[in-house]
Design a protein that fits this description.
- By secondary structure, the protein is an alpha+beta fold.
- The chain is built from one helix and ten strands; from the N terminus they run αββββββββββ.
- The strands form two sheets. Strands 1, 2, 3, 6 and 7 form a five-stranded antiparallel sheet that branches. A five-stranded antiparallel sheet has the order 5-4-8-9-10, with no helix packed on it.
- Strand 4 (88-94) and strand 5 form a beta hairpin.
- The termini are far apart.
């Protein structure tokens, strides 16, 4: 029995000590005078960089050639400030849903472009390189885009061309807004 009584006493003593610690310890701990208050505010914003687009300098022209042979689209344009001919991509797409701009196979911007001496260029895109994309009344979009060294590209400066009927009859070209 004495063991039972002693365990009861130990439990009572431990309970009194725990209760005393809960009640007395917070009054012994000193507070602090430090505070976190600051009336200053900051504001900021960020904007994604944009790659400037080439500019169409004159209306494009459709040159039908002889019976459609040697037909080409002539485009007058200027690269953005700080960009060279080597920073320009020329792509093409057919009009309509699901149309994707894609590089023109077999086309070299450098060999089909002449400098006008004032920073602008004239580029001839032969319609034979456009293959089945241009013909029998279908419309083709030819786009010039500036490519930044990071890989980002500008919005396109585009023209739309239509080869017309057989032999280039009724072919035309217009600058797109």
């Amino acid at each position: 029995m004495t063991r039972t009584v002693s365990w009861k006493r130990v439990r009572i003593v431990l309970a009194v000590v725990a209760l005393s610690a809960i009640v007395l310890v917070p009054s012994v701990v000193n507070g602090t005078v430090a505070g976190w208050k600051d009336d200053e505010t900051s504001a900021g914003q960020f904007k994604a960089g944009t790659v400037p687009a080439p500019v169409l300098t004159r209306d494009c022209t459709y040159i039908p050639g002889v019976l459609g042979l040697g037909a080409r689209v002539r485009i007058f344009w200027k690269p953005p400030v700080g960009y060279q001919l080597s920073n320009i991509d020329v792509t093409a797409s057919t009009s309509g849903l699901g149309s994707v701009l894609a590089p023109i196979t077999g086309f070299s911007l450098a060999s089909n472009t002449t400098s006008n001496g004032d920073g602008s260029y004239t580029t001839d895109v032969p319609t034979n390189l456009l293959g089945g994309l241009l013909g029998l009344g279908s419309e083709l979009e030819i786009a010039f885009q500036a490519r930044h060294e990071t890989g980002w590209i500008s919005v396109p400066a585009s023209v739309a061309s239509n080869a017309g009927l057989i032999g280039g009859l009724g072919g035309n070209c217009r600058n797109l807004p």
